Amino acid sequence: MAVTKKIKLRTLLLGMMLSLLFCGLIFRTYHLQIVEASTLRAMAERSWISNKELIPKRGTIYDRNGNILAQDGPAYTVAVNPELIAKVGTADEVVKILSSALEMNTPEGMQKLLDAVTAKNKEGKYLVQKEIRNEGWKIDSALKDKIVERFGGEKQMNRMGVYMIEEQKRYYPSNELAAHVLGYMDKDGNPRSGVEYRYHELLKGTPGSIHYIKDLLGYELPDGEVGFEPAVDGKSIRLTIDQNIQSYIEQALLAAYEKYEPKSMSAIAVNPKTMEILGMANLPVFNPNRYWDFASQADFYNHAVLSLYEPGSTFKIVTLAAAEEEGLFHPDDTFQSGSISFPEWGSKRIHDHNRTGWGEITYLEGLKRSSNVAFVKLGYEKLGKEKLSEYIHAFGFGQPTGIDLPGEGVGDVDFRYPIEVANATFGQGVTVTMLQQIAAVSAIANGGTLMKPYLLKEVIDPETGEVIERTEPQAVRRVVSEETARKVAEYLEQVVADREIGTGRDAYIEGYRVAGKTGTAQVVENGTYASDKWLVSFVGFAPVENPRIALIVIADEPKVDDYRMAGRVLPPVFKEIMEKSLHYLGVTANFPTDAAVANGTRPAETPDFVGRTPDEARNLAARSGFELEVYGNGERVVRQFPAPGTDAGTGQRMYALTEPADDIGFPDLTGMSLRDALDLCALWGALCTAEGEGYVTEQVRSRQENGLHVTLRLKPRREQTDAGAETREESLGELPADDGPSEGSAGAETPEASL
User: Fold this and answer.
1) Cα 100 from Cα 103, distance rounded (Å)
2) Residue 125 has what DSSP assignment?
3) Which pLDDT score is estimated for 623?
């Protein structure tokens, strides 16, 4: 009986337990299927779905003529599988092969590789993947193929635990060329400086993605749902930089850098009419393909944009322009050179670099000799503090130019004391940037308008190659009149052309009118002006009658014995860059060279066609060896180009109007060479600017305050069948042909003694 009760009790307990278990199962099933269903399904889907990010291609950077300056290309990251390497025992062999191929065969490099191939996690288990990140770590296709070959093929390499992860890498085909302009991308794909940084949002593109349903083995299910969001490649950009002019700059700088060993050298070349940057370079420099391999952090410093300098005598151009605009510069007036002082300065005196002076000389001679006294009298005595300050700020000093590069310097051109005003007249005691200086000088070259400098010329659709955005030249303000700008340009021309006393005579180029100004400033060291250290500069433009290039060059502390040598460092550098660039652009010599004059082969003079009938004018031109093209329906010639009496080569085409230009209407220049097109622009009195090289494909006209403006667009130079020659614009007279000394610093005494 007792046994029966026990059996029944056990049966009851077992039933109750089974019931409870069954209820638990029902509850759990309910909870899983109803309460946690969405969460569990999401977790399951995550395990089923494979996601992969699609990396966009970064936009290509071109120069103005379509040459590639930076582009994306295939690259590879070397990765190892420590777990597999440990199993097959290939650690030593892997280290040996990779250390040689990746140039990591130093003790430190080999240890780094050994640590990678034996890497473990926190639990002490071997990793299944470890990337080899030696400096830039992404390798190109050639090196990848070399490594694969050393392992005996890709399959054998994989069996030994080494893999190649395909990615993209930024390449700079010309290595150091324009490095400070372009900047670079680091190993993680982040822009670090230059155009790469400034236009990152345009260049980077938008990542895409792909996802699909997979089975337990990781394979895509045939009928599984697939999601695809394509990557959008970054926009490509065309810069204003001309690769050839950039190369001329860097070659000339390097030769001088090796000769004089300055702390740094910099140069900027621009189109003065638009302020497009044609070239910008600094030494020392770095290779953006190997940015980790550098001698000093100074290699990355873009002095052309960032650095502040006391300009020295190049700043006299501002004082000269202000005095001319105010009617205070009279080139034939005289003054006593040597030194000068005013009671309000106390005991201070300002000296010329020739401390005894040149006696009583004209102001024009003072400019050519770069007399500090002349400019103190012009800027301090005649203009005065307020007017001088007004022009300094109007020319853009003390404010950013707005260049589309990061970190632009500003400088300081404010002064409180009378002696500071006097020092500023010749560029001492103020700080400026190279960009500010070249913009100011370009305002003189282009007829008196300060322009905003820029590097981005066009934004390009990478798929179609179409231009989707174009930067237009931007005028900041008019600073002086066209007449003032023309006269100042002619005065600066004499600084170069007077080969007896002109301080810029080493920049003279036969056959071309060149305007320029030297500058030599004492370097501030420990709060005082050093007697044996100088910052030297040269700035100018050519040709004077139709400037195509404005150029500034600076050398910081070149190793020379005295200021006279310092002042002669850069004019030859300027000359080399300018001469090569003018020839490259097709700008022909527009007046006889010294050799031509000596040989008696001077060109003929242009006849006077004005007042003659069209037939009479054509016959006269033919007898003189010229071809004349007549526009208009009038009975007599009212205007011609070139002007009568101009030196011209036999066979040159000339142009004449028989009616006022406004009555005829501006001609269609399509298909013409740039030389012919600009000659007609001069005949019509229009201001024409050119984009590209070769033959005119498009012209855009606009009526502005100072007259008719025409933008000429030309085919790229490489597409031309005949390079043609650039314009000879307006004719010029001869230049003197003598030799003379260069300028230098004023010596060791005080800041006002600097040049």
Assistant:
1) 5
2) P
3) 76
Indicate the pTM of the whole model: 0.71
- Is 272 in a helix, a strand, or coil? coil
The predicted structure's pLDDT at residue 752: 37
Whether residue 306 contacts residue 408, with contact meaning beta carbons closer than 8 Å, is answered with yes
The SS3 call for residue 611 is coil
Q: How far apart are CA 620 and CA 113, in angstroms?
A: 85
Q: What are the DSSP calls for 428-459, one per residue?
A: -S-BB-HHHHHHHHHHHHTTSEEE--B-EEEE
Say if CB 553 and CB 570 are below 8 A apart.
yes
Helix (H) or strand (E) holding 361: strand 360-362
Catalytic residue among 99, 313, 389, 442: 313
SS3 annotation, 26-67:
HHHHHHHHHHCHHHHHHHHHHHHEEEEEECCCCCCEECCCCC
- Tell me the pLDDT of the chain averaged across its residues: 82
460 φψ region: left (φ > 0), alpha (ψ -120 to 50), beta (else):
beta
In the chain, DSSP finds a helix count (H) and a strand count (E) of 25, 30
Question: Hey, what are 427's tokens?
Answer: 């560029």
Q: What tokens does 741 get? A: 């000394």
Residues with Cβ within 8 Å of 552's Cβ and at least 6 positions away in sequence, in order, are 267, 268, 314, 434, 437, 438, 441, 537, 538, 539
Sort residue 169 into left (φ over 0), alpha (ψ -120 to 50) or beta: beta
313 noted as active-site residue: yes
Helix (H) or strand (E) holding 348: none
- CA–CA distance, 66 with 68 (Å, rounded to integer): 6
Q: How far is CA 138 from the centre of its chain?
A: 27
> What does the block give as tokens for 19?
């019931």
Q: What is the mean pLDDT of residues 635-663?
A: 80
Give me 237's structure tokens: 């950009």
Structure tokens at 142: 């050639």
Measured CA to CA, the distance from residue 612 to residue 404 in angstroms comes to 53
Return the axis-axis angle of helices 571-584 and 243-260, rounded to nearest 10°: 160
Determine the Cα angle at 411 with ends 407 and 417, to 5°.
160
Q: What pLDDT does residue 457 have?
A: 96
- The answer to whether 653 and 679 are in contact (CB under 8 A) is yes
Rg (CA), the chain: 36
Higher-confidence position of 429 and 747 = 429
Phi, psi of 149 (to 5 degrees): -65, -40
